[in-house]
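Researcher: Let's try something more involved. This one mixes different molecule types, so please make sure each is placed in the same coordinate frame as the others.
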Amino acid sequence: MKALIKYLPLALLAVAWEAAVRLGLVSRDLLPPFTQVISAGWTLLTAGDLWLNGAASLYRGGTGLAIAVAVGGTLGIVMAWWRPVNAFVSPLVEMLYPMPKSALIPITVLWLGFGDGSKILLIFLGCMLPVTIGAYNGARSCDRVLVWSARSMGASRLRVLWDVVVPSAMPELLNGVRTALALSFVLLVSSEMIVSRSGLGHLIGLLGEGGVYDAMFAVVLAVAFLGFFADRLYQMFVRRVLQWRE
Amino acid sequence: MARMIWRLAPWISLLTLALAWEALASSGAVTPFMLPRLSGVLVRIWNDTLSGDMPQSLGLTLYRALSGFGIAAVLGIPLGILIARNRAVHWFFDPIVSVGFPMPKIAFLPIVSLWFGFFDVSKILMVVLDAIFPIVTATVAGALSVEREILWSARNMGASERQMLREIILPAALPEIMTGLQVALPIALIVCIVAEMMMGGIGLGGTMMTASRFADSPGVFAGIVEIAVAGWIIVKLMAMLRRRLLLWHAEALAPPTV
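Model: All components are placed in one shared frame. Result:
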C-alpha cells in the first residue's frame, strides 16, 4: 500500500501518456499509446529478440565493467599506497578523468572493429577512472593509526594493505563502482546504437529506422528500467557487503 | 632537490606519455591507421585551427553542452529546493527522480530526435535530460541537510520564507549544489558528443564520426585530443568557481583532492 502511494506519480504519468494519445492531443506517429507499446514489448519478448540482444548487451557490459573494477580498483589502491606511483599516475588520471569517454567510440572501432571487443574495451576505458578515484580517495583516507598499530603488531606491509587499507577503501570504491555502472549503460547503449550488429542499442536503432515506433519505445523503456534495476540491485549488494560498518 | 622532482612529476608523466605515444607510433609495431603519430595529430589540429574547422566544431559542441548544462542548472536547482521544501512537489517528483536518475537516458535519443529533429534543440534537450538529475538530487540533499536549529531561530526572529531561502537554505546547500554541478558537467559533455555522433552534422562528435567512416585516423585522434583538453579546462574552471564561491566555507581550508 505504501509502495503504491509512493509510485503513484509514475502510474499517473503512464495514464496521462495513454490519455494524451487517445484524445488526439499528440499524434500517434510521434507517440504510440502506452498500452500498444507494452503489447509490442511483449511480442518482442516472446519472439526472443529481446533475449538475444539483451544477452549480447549484458555480456559486453558485464565483462567491460568487471575488468574496469579489477584494474581500476587495484590502480587506485596502489596509487594511495606508493608515492612514486601516485606522483606519476595521478596527473594522468586527473587529466583524463574529465574527458568525455564517448569520444573514444570511434577509436575502439578503429582498433577492434564492430564486434564485442570494441564495446568491452570502451566500457573498460570509460568505467575505470571513477573506480580508480573512489579507491584512491578511500585508501588515502584510511586511518593512519590503524596502519601503525597493525604494523607494530607485526603485520607485513602486504598484510596491512590487504587487511587494513583495502577494507577501509571499500565504501568509496563501491561508490565509484556505482558511478561506473551508470556510465557503462550510457557507453554500452550509445556504442551499440552507433556501430553494432547486435545488442539492445542496435535493436533500438534498427526499429527506429524501420519506423516501428511502438516496438522502439518498448525497447527504450526496457533499457531504461534495466538500468534502474541494475542500480537497485547493486545498492542492495553494497548494503550486504558493507554490513560490518554498522 | 627531492621537492623539485615531486613538483615536476605531473609534467614528467605527461611528457612520458606523449613520448611513449610518439615512439610506439613510429616504431612500426602498430600501423599508422591504428595509432597515428602524436606529432602528426598535433599538425592536423594546427591545420584545422588555421582553416577554422576546429574552432567551429569545438565551439558548437561547447555551445550545446554548456547551454544544456545551464538550462539543467536553472531548472534543476529550483526544482531541488522545491522538492526539499514542499510536500506535494516531493510526493510527485521523488519517485520520478529516483527512477529517472539511474536510467540510461541516452536510450531516449531516438525518441527525442523523432520529436525534435536532428538539430540543436534535440541535442541540447538530451544534455538537459541527463545533466538535470545529479543537480536535482544534490540540491535536495543539500537543502535537507540544513540544520533545523538555524532554520528555527531564523523563523523565530521573523524571517520570511523568501529571506530564509536566500539567507540560509541556498548558502547552506551551496557546497552540495556545487558538487552536483561538478558531477553534471562531464556528463553534459559525454552526452553532447554521443548525440552529435548519432545525429551527425557539425560539431566534434559528428566530425570524429565522419573521420572514422573515412578511415581518417589522425582526424579521430585530433578530435579526442581537442575534447580532452577542452573538458579538462572546463572542469578546472568549475573547480576554481567552487573555491571562489565557497571561500567562506570550512572546506576551503582543507587540502585539495583529485
